Amino acid sequence: MAQPLYLQIADDLEEQIRSGDLSPGSQLPTEDDLRDKYRASRNTVRDAIKRLVGQGLVETRPGQGTFVTTKVDPFVTVLTGKPAIAGGEGPFYLSEVNAEHRKPFRTTPRVEVQTAPGMITRRLRVPSGTHLVSRHEQRYIDDLPWSLQTSFYPMEFIARGATRLLIAEDITQGAVDYLAEAIGLEQIGYRDWITARRPDSNEQRFFRISHDSTVFEIFRTGFDQHRKPMRVTVTVFPADRNQFIVNTGDDLPDPRYDDLPDA
Amino acid sequence: MAQPLYLQIADDLEEQIRSGDLSPGSQLPTEDDLRDKYRASRNTVRDAIKRLVGQGLVETRPGQGTFVTTKVDPFVTVLTGKPAIAGGEGPFYLSEVNAEHRKPFRTTPRVEVQTAPGMITRRLRVPSGTHLVSRHEQRYIDDLPWSLQTSFYPMEFIARGATRLLIAEDITQGAVDYLAEAIGLEQIGYRDWITARRPDSNEQRFFRISHDSTVFEIFRTGFDQHRKPMRVTVTVFPADRNQFIVNTGDDLPDPRYDDLPDA
DNA sequence: GCAAATTTGTTCGTATGTATT
DNA sequence: CAATACATACGAACAAATTTG
User: Which domains does chain B have, with CATH numbers?
Assistant: First the structure.
């Protein structure tokens, strides 16, 4: 056995998909058809398909069939930028490359007061177990689920007068601008910490992705004029439709007109 | 059937792993033992284990058994930094956070002249099919495979006098400094384009990761004083042991003393 | 060095459950 | 309700990798 049969079948199907012989959105032959075609058992065919599902090349729908996944035009987020511009864009400075026609939408925040996980308190440099204000929202682009975002602020900000943080309303002017105006906290910069991991069950449901796909998780820590962390924002993006740009150095050419990802 | 049996088994094992009942590196009961314990067939037990493998919680070794994966202390790369400091560090400004004791090592480059893929020529803004110099190297940290890096330069640079680009030797002073000195090209900045994807078979072999794991792929385009792209570097990192930091704004506190990832 | 024992990997056949049309 | 298609589960057999005696 040079190669296991299920791998031969998977490779053959993968080749058909990559060559365009099986176009995105089209249906694969049913498992029974593939069983006849490759003279294998149905279980072996299913092992091959499982592999393709894991690779994100196809998706199965019970009662319907197996279909070649359609690639979405990836959404590109620029992580760097002059912090001052961030106002009105929400916690993230989202500059969408190649997205002229795209319509972002986000839910009104779900506001809670909770004891945050160590991942957050450590970054905010507060004792673990401290109560924090969290503002969670779901974000869509063109009605496609795009990211899940949660921002954490110290409770202390409320006492100092930033009461709108507790209200479940979009802070349209931008939370950064609001904090500057309300309690005189200026964000002088931020640090993004980029990781990748598997989605939890919530994320699988919201993004409609499988358990063995990948999400980016970006922790953004904002620092005030005293170089102290003033807030932490955690954003989760499905890796299959998100990419990121980081610019270092001033006056770089606009990425919009080159650097395009492969079609 | 509230939950499929193989998911119940997987969840139970996952719980044992997360609780520390099964510690990292330790061996799970054999498939036959698990078959008896859960009164399921061996195939059902194997389905459960496959799921855990996909989640990266365990790894199987033919002839030996199934073992709880040991998490490596992640390696953190800072993507932003004053470009001037990059000299001597190689194409990437690699500032290792929490890495005092770690020893980086890289192979001597494999140098080729090739027609690069569209992904590269598009970023370099040269016609597709143009010949480019590529310098490929494998990079290790503490003898663990850490990243695969390939840099592309226009052939024209050779004619203009940067002949050392063609030599399969480490350019210890840094390629950026060398180009400045040899042909007067200054890198004024760069752009990183961050994506995630599945590893190809080469990468699976080199990093010793499975086909359904994830790698980061970072395209770094360097720009010269005329704001034209002067080189493109592609680096691939396995996602299970790599994280990235992006700083926006000056004078942020050192991430080394906070922001530590969870143990 | 070799053979046996152990353990995971592949493949088949079969039966039944669940979702969709 | 019936037909179709994928999902789960069991049992069995043999192959391949590794360790042990």
Answer: 5-68 (1.10.10.10), 75-247 (3.40.1410.10)
